[in-house]
Amino acid sequence: MAEFDLIDRIRRRIPARADVALGIGDDAALLQVPAGRQLVVCADTLNEGIHFPAGTAAADIGWKALAVNLSDLAAMGAEPAWCTLSLSLPAPDVAWLDAFLDGFLELAALHRVALVGGDTTRGPLSVSVTAHGFVEPGRALLRGGAGVGEDIWVSGTLGDAAAALALLEQGAPDALRQRLDRPTPRVELGRALAGIATAAVDVSDGLLADLAHVCRASGVGAEVELDRLPASAALRDAVGPEQRRAFQAAGGDDYELCFTAPVERARRIEGAAAVSGVAVARIGRTVGGSHVVMRDGGGRPWAPDKTGYEHFG
Ligand code: ADP
Ligand code: MG
Fold first, then answer.
1. Which residues keep their CB under 5 angstroms from ion ligand 2?
2. Is 242 in the pocket of ligand 1 (CB under 6 A)?
3. I need a labelling partner for 268 at 20 to 30 A (CA). Which of 12, 70, 193, 198 fits?
4. CA-CA-CA-CA torsion for 151, 156, 157, 160, nearest 10 degrees?
5. Nearest CA to ligand 1 atom 4
6. pLDDT tens, position by position, 110-125
């Protein structure tokens, strides 16, 4: 099967979207940004063996490739609109492509994101997605907006994906594996937090590493209470407390939102969580200085052996 046929297979499955004046098929797409809104753009690549285990189902790779990008848009408080897809495939495998699109387009449909273009080449399996969204000027959630004395919040639960990865060989419980393969981008929460939260980041490299980005950009420190980090029942069942804490604090691949807000906005944060149907937990406070300190139940500083996933690290 030729490259053209693969692209046509993709094109035939894309539903129309009113603001796509020209989608797949020409040298570039033509897109209409709504008046009075800023365009938000992000990109993320998934490489086999690094961002997903070799042997991951094609549909899960498709879902995750888009999910990690929608998560970045969510962390900006943006409403997703469009995406492009650059695929590097070892062979023109139609069955693989169809399954990949099943996962990719399932998530795209949930958020009415249109695939408007991309590139298809032969090479080691690699999936690169660029996502575009809109935000009202002045309302984007940046990493640098946190002040001292604010609450630090996190959505959902932490550590599930990291535990799934660690338990892969022995067969991770389905509930954990699902969190690794099909992360849920917190798009509705990000939208609801725009204009309320002061700073936000999505947790992709581990809570400590990503919260440190917020602290660095905002010029604040952070005190986090270990016992407040939210854990799923599946995680509690799968590993002991020490391991669980390490996965929650430093595991990564969570795609939850970590954000800050002044203490008096707690009610509004809880309201935003309620309308978006996701739980949020207050896990600590921003403080002066520049360090992220975690404390255990006895108030003692606690650190995992490893903080976050770093490429080239
Ligand atoms: P060009 O050589 O001009 O870059 P291509 O043959 O690469 O053209 O692409 C033809 C059209 O197909 C373009 O609109 C491009 O955006 C789209 N396209 C190519 N690969 C993909 C893909 N993997 N997903 C979505 N659209 C694609
Ligand atoms: Mg091209």
1. 119
2. no
3. 70
4. -140
5. 27
6. 999 999 999 999 999 9
